[in-house]
Design a protein that fits this description.
This protein is of the alpha/beta class. The protein is about 30% helix and about 25% strand. An eight-stranded mixed beta sheet has the order 8-9-11-12-13-14-15-16, covered by helices on one side. Helix 3 links the parallel strand 11 and strand 12 (about 150-155). Helix 2 (about 105-115) packs across helix 3 (about 135-145) and helix 7 packs parallel to helix 8 (about 265-275). About 45% of the residues are buried. Bound molecules: iron/sulfur cluster (SF4). Iron/sulfur cluster binds near residues 19, 20, 32 and 83.
């Protein structure tokens, strides 16, 4: 356990976490909604600091980042926990279960990233689960990685408060941010989050680092061509250079009641988004 940042002590030994927009109020002995932060005797601790559940040297395109150092590899690491509750989660076994982990200090992860340079590694991607709820470990590692000339990449749901995000962004070179749907009700009902907070993250990040956006297109839920057109228009208002990835849904986790996204819907959505954006890609089709 590592002392957490971004919380306030409140009455009766409770704590108020300010890392993400859930703003959990946590009783002593209890966890936050992300399962990664615990109130121990009136202090908040990070439970996943340095606990690696998954690590691999991946092509940068797998993040997906198509217009940031194409053709390179990046050492990718993740832990457990997530602050959203998407019923269609494609990484549920580490995001929402209790995977086995190995302990690793930030310096050790950076050392491995440097060693992998010879194989084409450009840095570290914080991915597989939600990196913002691994904040203390990600921040400490990003600072060290930058000192060594490595790139830092976040693959994130963008559901983080403004203040911690702004503190981390100077160390971040690129982000892929999920915008999981383009209605408030989709976020509220399917993900237990809020669209406006995610839009804020995209807008703040796009001014400070390379940003690409991904939407998992789910039949009958967020696949309206008009809705995707509106999302593309908003993205273009931030920058029409932001690449948009339209990813194909496959039944997973708690959402198994619908078929994979028909390819023709993805191609129609791509054509619509291309009316506003320069770069739109269809993913997971083979
Ligand atoms: S980071 Fe975790 S504990 Fe903190 S507000 Fe978000 S869900 Fe709650």
């Amino acid at each position: 356990m590592k002392p957490a940042r971004y919380f306030d002590k409140i009455e009766n030994s409770k704590v108020h976490c300010r890392l993400c927009p859930h703003h959990c109020v946590i009783d002593p002995g209890r966890l936050g909604a992300c399962r990664a932060r615990k109130n121990v005797d009136g202090e908040l601790f990070s439970l996943n600091y340095g606990r690696i559940a998954s690590m691999a040297l991946d092509p940068i395109e797998k993040k997906p980042l198509y217009r940031f150092r194409p053709g390179s590899l990046i050492l990718s690491a993740g832990t457990f926990g997530c602050n959203l509750k998407c019923s269609f989660c494609q990484n549920w076994s580490i995001a929402h279960e209790e995977p086995q982990t190995v302990d690793m200090k930030p310096r050790e992860l950076v050392r491995r990233a440097k060693e992998a340079r010879i194989a084409g590694n450009i840095g570290i991607a914080y991915t597989y689960n939600e990196p913002s709820i691994w904040y203390e470990f990600v921040y400490d590692t990003c600072v060290l990685a930058k000192e060594e000339g490595l790139d830092n990449v976040l693959v994130t749901n963008g559901f983080i408060d403004r203040e911690p995000l702004m503190e981390l962004l100077p160390y971040i070179d690129a982000m892929n941010i999920d915008v999981k749907g383009y209605t408030a009700s989709f976020y509220q009902e399917i993900c237990r989050g809020t669209l406006d907070n995610v839009k804020q993250t995209v807008e703040l990040a796009a001014e400070r680092c390379h940003v690409e956006v991904t939407i998992l297109v789910i039949p009958g839920l967020n696949d309206s061509i008009n809705e995707i057109g509106e999302m593309a228009k908003w993205l273009a208002s931030v920058s029409d250079e932001i690449p948009l990835h339209l990813s194909r849904y496959f039944p997973n986790y708690k959402m198994t009641d619908r078929p994979p996204t028909p390819k023709e819907i993805l191609y129609r959505a791509r054509d619509k988004a291309l009316e506003s954006l320069k770069y739109v890609y269809v993913g997971n089709v083979w």
